[in-house]
Amino acid sequence: MTTFITICDTCKREGWAETGADVTDGAALAELIESVAAEQVQTRRVSCLMGCTHGCNIAIQAEGKLAYTLGKFEATLDAAEAIVEYAALHQASETGQIPYRTWPAGVKGHFITRHPPLPSLKPSNSDA
Q1: CA nearest neighbour of 60 among 85, 36, 87, 81
Q2: Residue 56 preceded by cis peptide, ω within 30
Q3: What domain range includes position 72?
Q4: How confident is the model at residue 128 (pLDDT cuts 50, 70, 90)?
Q5: CA dihedral defined by 5, 8, 12, 14, rounded to 10 degrees?
Q6: Are 47 and 38 in contact (CB under 8 A)?
Q7: Alpha-carbon distance 128 to 125, whole Å?
Q8: CB 96 within 8 A of CB 66
Q9: Sheet containing 111-115: order of strands
Q10: Number of structural domains, the chain?
């Protein structure tokens, strides 16, 4: 299953307005993640993951697997590399669960939520 890194490109870390930056912290992180991810995993940008107090936020998702929301990242190459490395481990996992001992150091302490996979919906007899 293909794993996606969903990146909030509107995230602004505390004090962003005072920096005078033209680009949000989330957009800067998205650019770094996209450059690192290349052909390893898929990326997509969204405007607002509603985790404003935890910015910068990303989600790791794949059909039929556990999904994770991570936050409190800075727009750095180290963060982007750790996020992509974790997403690649997620993609290689059958369930999306990754043993803690194999997590990249750069994602430890950044997990906000874990979501179970959606249940498979089997068509009812009336749908046939």
Answers
A1: 87
A2: yes
A3: 4-127
A4: low
A5: -60
A6: no
A7: 6
A8: yes
A9: 42-46, 4-8, 58-61, 67-70, 111-115
A10: 1
